[in-house]
Batch of 4 targets.
Target 1
Amino acid sequence: MNAKDAAARIAAEPENAKETPSLLDGIRRRLSGEFDVDPWGFDEELAQLAVNASGVRWAVDVIGGARLPTKGPAMLMVHRRIGVSEPSVVAKGVHQVTGRVLRISGLPDVPVASSIFRRLGGVLDDAGEIDGLLRAGELVMVPMGWQPLHASIAGQLRSAAVQPAIDAGVPVLPVATFGSEVGRRWRIMIGEPIQPPKRADKIGTVEFAEAVRAGVQHLLDHPR
């Protein structure tokens, strides 16, 4: 989906697009303490400002953007190579298609840095936090294992990583990323949503994780 199509989709669904906050107003409210955070420490207005500003650094093309839900929960299982740019790149792609702010797991549990990233939508790689976000209707990105030397191979995916999606009964969307850390233009591909199994035993969880990883690999094998 190109920028024109994305803009048309958001315009057709105004209830899903947040009003773009003013930078000066945002700064003023933070200096005066007039802003809210959710139970996970998320500052929605600040995150909106950050994702809008990210357009200076990245230009993102989204393939399969119509598969992203404009409301309601979903888990995005994201392929990563180096893993530095992917969270911001995918967050920008999701926002330009849906107007929604992506919540990103894998936050380092480090004082000060943790608090800052939480303001922008980051959460710990913790099943309880991810489960809570999904049940609250959020879009949550879960990064796969590192693949610094093999960009076309989906990384490791622990079965425990998909357990929150099973417990909350929400779909997982495979996501492949194409770009370089020093480049400006990135492309992300969104695969068909994979529904969680009705049974939550160990075998069902492992099979579900394998299906999700296969979905990511399929995108990497058939780039567009």
Note: DSSP finds eight helices and seven strands in the chain.
Target 2
Amino acid sequence: MNDTGFWWILALQIIGFFVICIKIYAKSYSTEKGKNLATKEDVGEITQIVESIKTSLSIKIEELKSNLSYKNEHLIYLRASERNAIINYYKATWVLVLNFTRTDLIKYEIDNFDEKNGEVSNSKFLRYISDAELILNKIKDEVSNLKYLMDISESELMFFYDKPELTSIIGELNLSLSEFERSLFRSINLLLQVFTEISVIASNGTLTKEAIIEAKRKRSDILANWYEDRYNSLFFIRTFNGNLKSTLLERLTSLTS
């Protein structure tokens, strides 16, 4: 073989070698590219799944936050309403108790009259009786209204806090208040009856000093019984009202925790 043939064969071998290398590289590249493409597709699919899960979790978290917010707002509203109910009931009770405490029937004495020849001028006397009757009836109306407001506030309180201990205290307190109310109304009605009797006498023109003295005696007896009942009733009212205050304060403290 001459030199030209040798170099020709060598060139062919080198070219073949490069061709083989290129084929191997191309195959390897294609394989790797396919793997990369598959990996990218897998990553894309996984990313979509993750994003879907994140979206679902975000929605559920927002729903949970919304539910918790609603429950918290509802709880806050209930506690605020119960707090107002406790305060309103205690105020209504004390207003009624103070009204009882300050009610004084002694100022409605029958002493506005003039004496002349054993008889009494009745014009001023009748006007005084009329004013006294209006005031006494007004006292009854005010007590009835305050008792009504206390009953409403009690119903509201019981809606939130119907516990045996509180129910027992309120029951005893209401009993004492009712006894006081009956005693007050009984005394007022008896006084009104005395005023009516003496007014009839005065209207007939036969009002005498003796009739006035008798009316004042009856009034004194009524007031004596009234003040005795008042003292006993207020003693029990203050006792149960003190217990009520302690119980309600304890409940108010628990609402702030």
Note: Strands lie at 115-116, 119-120.
Target 3
Amino acid sequence: MADSNIIVGEKIKAIREQKNISIEELSERSGLTTEVIASIEKETSLPSLAPLIKIARGLGVRLGTFLDDNDELGPVVCRENERNAAISFSNGSASANKYMDYFSLAGHKSGRHFEPFFIDIKPCEDKTFVNSAHEGEEFIYVLEGEIEINYGKDTHVLKKGDSIYYDSIVEHHVHAKDGKAAKILATVYTPF
């Protein structure tokens, strides 16, 4: 896997400008502040997944549009050694360190309705994460390590081989348990 990250902010800005949507209008459509949108576009802050989903809806595009959408109508095969572009997210903490690398497993599939990811969760001792909520559903399967999922008022601990499926409209946060690394397979569905 290469170290090159997809430049999400540049793609958001290009799509916004192509559609003649101002930052103020996107702010109204997404419910995010103009400062947050400008910061993401300038790549000065690492977003969590929830703001990207809100921006995608505000722009009238699928989340996958930021993750290298292409026009493949048939099946898409993604080999382990071909996963070469990651998008990194913060955990919403004040330090905004990147702690998750998302590798899209269907970036070339046109018209998809959910986003499958291989996610590498890095060790993180920072426990000041912020729960997020967005429309849709998520499914997570733990490949390595242990994760904690804050979901509403509950916390779920998942080990290798465990899975969880939940409505993402409920406030939630996914992170490695005890600050140790983990690897998961996740799918995110957001209604368009």
Note: The chain is about 20% helix and 30% strand.
Target 4
Amino acid sequence: MKVILNKDLPTLGEEGDVKEVAKGYARNFLFPRSIALPYTERTIALFEARRGEIEARKTDKRKDAASIKERLEGLDLTITMPAGANGKLYGAVTNQTVSDELSKLGFQIERKRIELAGNTFKSVGKYKVLVRLYESAAAEVSLTVQGQVLKTETRTTASGKARRRRNVESEPAHNPQTGSAPETAPVANNPVEPQAGGSVPVEG
């Protein structure tokens, strides 16, 4: 069925646009939220009367888009990601990654408006990111992906040394003359007990 949008809806269109949508979508979502109105003679007349203010708002949006485009293209965006020594990322840079980074700089841009060649970047390097703004306006943002090398090898070596040190400490000391570990002296099976009077008999 035909509807006229009463508000901007990024996934559908802008205020004043005429769209063809499913009846259920219109009745269950668009109409209850006043996002759209049925396409009738009455609503057509209503929007014709509002055309001037709608166009004025669109002009403001175009100006805002031009300003944002200029600011975005003046950026040199840098994202640091964990990576191997060969420059391959442990993970990937996505449009959500870029959206989050732009948000930190004060740009509230939906990830759907951000386009990456191949959808993701999986290696360090310099890239161009396309940001769709308003109507045909789009900004090309310079992006540098830096790698943060994880020091796994250093940790492995250190833990290996610690293990070797514990093993050495647990081994018995070797006798330098015989080359073998010293034996513990055997304990006598029948120890001599002192006799009455506190003296121990001595064989002579």
Note: The radius of gyration is 39 Å.
